[in-house]
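haha ok so turns out i had the wrong file open the whole time. this is the CORRECT one, sorry everyone. sequence first:
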Amino acid sequence: MTQQPPARKGTAVHNVTLNNGVEMPVLGFGVYQVPPEQTEKVVTDALAAGYRSIDTAAAYGNEEAVGRAIRNSGIPREELFVTTKLWVQDNPAEDNTRRAFDTSLRKLGLDHVDLYLMHQPYRDVHGQWRAMQDLHREGLAKAIGVSNFHPDRLVDLTEHNEITPAVNQIETHPFHQRTADQGLMRDRGVQIESWGPFAEGKNGLFTHPVLSGIGEAHGKSVAQVVLRWLIQRDVVVIPKSVRAERMAENLDVFDFALTDDQMARIATLDTGASQFFDHRDPGMTIQLGNHRLTD
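then structure:
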């Protein structure tokens, strides 16, 4: 863990450098579960607040709205970091992966994405990954990675392919901290990225006495404490909000630092288990592996 010094209020979001040299903001904005009809305004507000990294997915159904917000923002493309994700593909996975990527790129209205992730660790992941490697070599995806890969699947993918994933986006929050997983990723050169940083409020996260007490000590909210905790653990994070004031609050986490004692207190909250579902559960494998998207 890199203990970072407190920064001045208003300090810009800093970047992490991925294993291929691409720089990625450590704090971005996610649009999971944002309805398509609300997404353009939400992303517009996020960009206005100062976010420059936007995370979407084919499965979210809102790539077109994300693309409109980006185009209408007037922000130069080179200042933005755009992530989208590949849903589970039928065989032939390599051909279908290319088509799925082309569809996402068309919906976004972009000529490339900065990060393309395999959304789920199911079906022919090696065929999907070979196609993603080609997209990367062609410059259409500046970096490629995975999502929801447990260590065994991540090692299998890295051992048998040319390109190591740049990112693994997994459930990571105070109640499921993924410390051992992060250690393996660090050894393999894979950047951990958190989805669900607030655990969707489960276990009373926003009123938890440990987190609330630390927030009071810094004059910060629980959400800010959680984001700061993740950032100090070198975890990339993409919180979601549909409220402009919360978007701004979530960005305001670079003017303080948690102490070693506070980091240790948060470490005691780890349950070692998902607060949602386990991707290794056979029922979930069937459900997600057989789910099909429609354009």
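The first strand starts at residue 15 and ends at 17.
again sry for the mixup
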